[in-house]
Amino acid sequence: MAVHAHPDDESSKGAATMARYVADGVEVLVVTCTGGERGDILNPAMDRPEVKENIGKVREQEMARAREILGVRQSWLGFVDSGFPEGDPPPPLPEDCFAVQPLEVASEPLVRAVREFRPHVILTYDENGGYPHPDHVKCHEVSVEAFEAAGDPDRYPGTGEPWQPLKLYYHMTFHEERILALHAAMERVGLESPYAEWIKRFEDAPAPRWTVTTRVPCAEFFEIRDKALLAHATQIDPEGFWFACPMDVQREAWPTEDYHLARSLVDTELPEDDLFAGVREKVCL
After folding, report:
1. Does the pLDDT at position 283 exceed 90?
2. Which residues bind Zn(2+) (predicted)?
3. Neighbour count for residue 166 (Cβ, 10 Å)
4. Backbone dihedral region of 211: left (phi > 0), alpha (psi from -120 to 50 degrees) or beta?
5. Residue ranges at the known binding site for Zn(2+)
6. What angle do CA 87, 92, 93 make, to 5 degrees?
7. Stated pTM of the model
């Protein structure tokens, strides 16, 4: 189970990993917390009045295409996008949005989903949300709550039979080591790297709290990842940053998607190359 804040997050974080496990016969469910109704349109070709007026429906249709490309199941928690508050000081969040919901209210449908789907592994964001969008931070909070509560019969009564997931991972998609490797690889082949600004931010940022514990080889599924990204046409510019690094360069420089193992109820040796390390010895997948 991969828990994400908005439609398109599943395609930018861990999509090749999911496609790899689908190809291996693993059942994969993407849970999308909000409909992305307050997201900006980031592709100039889609910045049209009829798209803006129906952005919620458009993003729902985009998600349907992306999940078909990835071969995953997908469900909505049904919360409203919080938007990204900007300003100094930032404005208050909308009263109806996901990020302001009490933890138990926001977590209840995810606990229900965990108990129904019965995943062994859950993917989510760290406590900073990967970046500090309020919906990403809330997504982390509800994912941790569901991981810890779904197996307890005394918590969240009426949401199904208890089920305890075995491993919880945080996405480590945009960590410094990977970005530096892609940057160097592009320069080696004489291409202009789009990562210079990222590298400057790394130089000014504090040391990361979480380390990469798990690198999943999935380079052969990068094309599927990119097709899923392009399905989110309001969010992804085909001429933009996401596709600046050629596929062959990516595959050679960094052929994995990376994670931090945040919780584990099974024995496993680090580093890992499989999200199901330790689980395979406990259950038949």
Report:
1. no
2. 6, 9, 136
3. 20
4. beta
5. 6, 9, 136
6. 110
7. 0.96
172, 260 in Cβ contact below 8 A? yes
* 253-257 CB contacts, 8 Å cutoff, 24+ apart: 253/181, 253/182, 253/184, 253/185, 254/178, 254/181, 254/182, 255/217, 255/218, 255/219, 256/215, 256/216, 256/217, 256/218, 256/219, 257/14, 257/16, 257/17, 257/173, 257/215, 257/216, 257/218
CA–CA distance, 29 with 71 (Å, rounded to integer): 10
Task: Please determine, for residue 215, whether its predicted confidence score (pLDDT) is greater than 80.
Answer: yes
For 13, 21, 68, 77, 190, the CA distances from 174, given in Å and listed in that order, are: 9, 21, 25, 26, 23
Q: How far is CA 205 from the centre of its chain?
A: 22
Measured between alpha carbons, how far is 233 from 47 in angstroms, rounded to an integer? 10
The length of the chain is 285
Structure tokens at 75: 């469900």
Does residue 249 or residue 240 have the better pLDDT? Answer: 249
If one counts every other C-beta atom within 10 angstroms of the C-beta of residue 169, the result is 26
Q: Which residues contact 68 (CB under 8 A, 6 or more apart)?
A: none
Distances from the Cα of 135 to the Cαs of 82, 128, 171, in angstroms?
6, 10, 15
Q: Which residues are annotated as a binding site?
A: 6, 9, 136
